[in-house]
Amino acid sequence: MIQETRRHILEILKDHSELTVDEIVDILHERVEKKVTAATVRHHLDVLKENGMVETPEVRRRDTPGRPQYVFVLTEKAGDYFPSNYAGLAEGLLSQIKAHLPGQQFNVILEGTAREMAAKANIPEDLPFETRLDLVIEHLTEQGYQARWQPAEDGFLLETSNCPYEKVVQSHDDLCMVDMYLISTLLGIVPRRLGRRAEGDASCSYFIPMVEELAD
């Protein structure tokens, strides 16, 4: 759990976009009963900056002469601290899409979504297969899948131990097809699904058949 004063500072910066240390101190005094010094606020800002939640301070432009004023703003990472309802929105959108489109058109949307996700990985197609597989694992892990691979008879075993949209899959298990399309597009090979977390398995697992370049 985040320390109380740092929590207040995050909330204050969220409300005001950018503030100096003195401005944060003034607002803190209105929020909490105990007095907080500028030195204390600077310490907490340093900790938040080290944790990637506050940007390096920048000089605020002034219209009048005077000492430069340094302002602090939240990073994109800090947004993860605040409540969100992406799962609720995604679930509602999927329900409406499925209600108004035939099943085949819904699958086309899932496949197109996977293609867009794969394009963002920007993995070259002319790499040795295992090198490409390493990059695919790295990309999937960056996207929250906690992926890994290991050699298997006549191919490879790819496993993901976390589902980034697990809450949505609970009511829309056909969303798992996005992962199949995504892995197929990233590797250029259609895998065979071996296990699914949605069905109680420890991980989502896929068998990837040996490609010709490695079989020769």
Can you describe what's shown?
A hairpin with an 8-residue loop joins β5 and β6. With 216 residues, the chain is α+β, with helices and mostly antiparallel strands. α1 (4-16) crosses α2 (21-31) and α5 (103-121) packs across α8. The strands form two sheets. Strands 3-4-6-5 form a four-stranded antiparallel sheet, with helices on one face. The chain has a two-stranded antiparallel ribbon with strand order 1-2. The chain has helices at 4-16, 21-31, 38-50, 86-100, 103-121, 129-142, 166-169, 176-187, 212-215; strands spanning 58-60, 69-71, 147-152, 155-160, 192-195, 204-209.
Sum this structure up briefly.
This protein has helices at 4-16, 21-31, 38-50, 86-100, 103-121, 129-142, 166-169, 176-187, 212-215, and strands at 58-60, 69-71, 147-152, 155-160, 192-195, 204-209. It is an alpha+beta fold and 216 residues long. Strand 5 (192-195) and strand 6 (204-209) form a beta hairpin.
